[in-house]
């Protein structure tokens, strides 16, 4: 039903699919919701179509919308990131009072969120950047919610978010106060980066099972369904099986065979890699996933390269294929652990760089439900960080290290087969290279430092004494302390 009472607990402006579903979620959970859209027809349509789901207060103007909200006002913006978000803030901020809260639920860049939070804080208005994962369905039925902002703003907003969020298997709400200013949008960005890597690894597993094991899409769907009953239990594995089992109605062919193999992206994965470079954090698996999508879209380059030499894939026999599929499962699981390791490393580095004090165990906890990367093993990631708050890497956790040890022979065998049969596996390969680099006693970076000192006098550090040094390469090659 709709109401004209001036007592809405929360308001949503921007009623495209995500905004509309989020407003419905609040209303379904017993909150009176003020709703507003630049196009008034969308506001009316929402109330007419879904008014029986709860209490909505439709508003045609910004002032009506603000006046409908109880103090402290909680105003959720659900518009496109960037300039449209700034425009809405500029429209509503003058109508608000100190203590009110503006919530940005879009996929904003965390640097923009930090800027907006600072500007509004100076006016006494709280600004909360909220990462929301789960897509249209999650917005309606319960997403994973990652709010940043002041602790005071979470006291006002948190109980509402906890009510509408997804719930983990133990009943815990999939939301928590991530940290100050842009922390929420930063964590959402890294979530999406991990999502890119996860999807790429799954795609590579499919490619290997098809090209090397010789499995049909239908057979691979069965394999993924089996994997989804074990340690790979996750939303992405579940939907992959559904996609692979789907037949195109028009042609009767497997759906995956009638879709152009050019993957698109909206930018958050790319942001993750860009910010990782700024922080000096190696997220090679996420980077390879971003580059794989980019390469797939260069149709002209790919067409021009089709005639390049390489081995022809030679599918295995039935028993060999079955054994190979088991090896691919090991490689996928090990690579997945590495992807999450890299993502959590970036969250920890960002937290330190920006003074956010993010709890990685709490992040793992709220990713257990609602979000795209929800997976059974996030429970174990949470437990690992809860047991050791200073855990430098998931690979330092005894149980994960033991599982990687058990998987590594099969992991390596899969990559040997991929190379021999010419199947590209940038995600699997990057994950193993990262693992091998971490465990190496010495890396060739020593030679790199020598090269840098030779051509640029960049100096180097020695293994046997403190200080920075430079070799006089052009003369007697004596060493001087820098």
List the helices and strands and how they pair.
Elements: E1 10-13, H1 17-28, E2 33-36, H2 40-50, E3 56-58, H3 62-67, E4 74-77, H4 83-92, E5 101-104, H5 110-121, E6 126-133, H6 135-141, E7 144-147, H7 151-164, H8 183-211, H9 217-227, H10 235-245, H11 255-258, H12 268-279, H13 284-296, H14 299-304, H15 318-354, H16 360-366, H17 378-387, H18 398-421, H19 426-439, H20 445-456, E8 460-461, E9 468-471, E10 479-481
Parallel strand pairs: 1-2, 1-4, 2-3, 4-5, 5-6
Antiparallel strand pairs: 6-7, 8-9, 9-10
Structure commentary:
By secondary structure, the chain is of the alpha/beta class. Helices cover 54% and strands 8% of the residues. The chain has 20 helices and ten strands. β8 and β9 form a beta hairpin. α8 packs across α13, α13 packs antiparallel against α19 (426-439) and α15 crosses α18. The termini are far apart.
Give the helix proportion (percent range).
40-55%
Question: What letter string, H or E per element, gives the SSE order?
Answer: EHEHEHEHEHEHEHHHHHHHHHHHHHHEEE
Profile the largest sheet: 7 strands, mixed
Q: How widely separated are the two ends?
A: 75 Å
Structural classification: alpha/beta
Instruction: Kindly state the number of beta strands.
Output: 10
List the strand order in the largest sheet. 3-2-1-4-5-6-7
Q: Shape, please?
A: globular
List keywords for this structure.
single chain, 482 residues, alpha/beta, 20 helices, 54% helix, 8% strand, disordered N terminus
């Amino acid at each position: 039903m709709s109401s004209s009472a001036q007592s809405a607990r929360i308001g949503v402006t921007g009623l495209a699919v995500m905004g509309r579903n989020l407003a419905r979620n609040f209303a379904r959970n017993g909150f009176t919701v003020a709703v507003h859209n630049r196009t008034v027809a969308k506001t009316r349509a929402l109330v007419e179509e879904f008014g029986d789901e709860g209490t909505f207060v439709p508003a045609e103007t910004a002032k009506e919308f603000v006046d409908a909200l109880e103090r402290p006002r909680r105003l959720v913006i659900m518009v496109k990131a960037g300039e449209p978000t700034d425009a809405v803030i500029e429209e509503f901020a003058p109508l608000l009072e100190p203590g009110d809260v503006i919530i940005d639920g879009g996929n904003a860049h965390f640097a923009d969120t930090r800027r907006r939070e600072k500007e509004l804080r100076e006016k006494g208005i709280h600004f909360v950047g909220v990462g929301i994962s789960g897509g249209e369905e999650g917005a309606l039925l319960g997403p994973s919610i990652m709010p940043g902002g002041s602790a005071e703003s979470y006291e006002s907003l948190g109980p509402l978010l906890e009510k509408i969020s997804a719930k983990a298997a133990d009943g815990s709400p999939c939301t928590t106060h991530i940290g100050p200013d842009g922390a929420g949008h930063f964590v959402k960005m890294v979530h999406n980066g991990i999502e890119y890597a996860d999807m790429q690894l799954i795609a590579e597993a499919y490619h290997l099972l098809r090209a090397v094991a010789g499995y049909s899409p239908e057979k691979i769907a069965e394999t993924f369904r089996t994997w989804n009953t074990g340690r790979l239990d996750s939303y992405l594995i579940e939907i992959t099986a559904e996609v692979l089992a789907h037949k195109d109605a028009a042609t009767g062919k497997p759906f995956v065979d009638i879709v152009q193999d050019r993957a698109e992206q909206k930018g958050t994965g790319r942001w993750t890699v860009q910010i990782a470079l700024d922080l000096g954090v190696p997220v090679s698996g996420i980077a390879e996933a971003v580059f794989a999508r980019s390469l797939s879209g260069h149709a002209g380059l790919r067409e021009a390269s089709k005639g390049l030499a390489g081995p022809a894939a030679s599918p295995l026999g039935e028993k060999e294929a079955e054994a190979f599929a088991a090896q691919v499962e090991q490689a996928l699981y090990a690579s997945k652990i590495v992807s999450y390791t890299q993502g959590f490393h970036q969250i920890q580095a960002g937290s330190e760089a920006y003074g956010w004090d993010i709890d990685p165990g709490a992040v793992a906890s709220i990713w257990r439900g609602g979000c795209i990367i929800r997976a059974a093993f996030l429970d174990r990631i949470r437990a690992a960080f809860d047991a050791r708050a200073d855990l430098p890497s998931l690979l330092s956790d005894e149980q994960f290290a033991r599982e990687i040890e058990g998987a590594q022979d099969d992991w390596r065998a899969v990559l040997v087969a991929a190379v021999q049969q010419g199947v590209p596996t940038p995600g699997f390969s990057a994950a193993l290279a990262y693992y091998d680099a971490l465990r190496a006693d010495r890396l060739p970076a020593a030679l790199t430092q020598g090269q840098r000192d030779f051509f640029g006098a960049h100096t180097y550090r020695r293994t046997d004494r403190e200080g920075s040094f430079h070799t006089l390469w052009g003369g007697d090659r004596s060493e001087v302390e820098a």
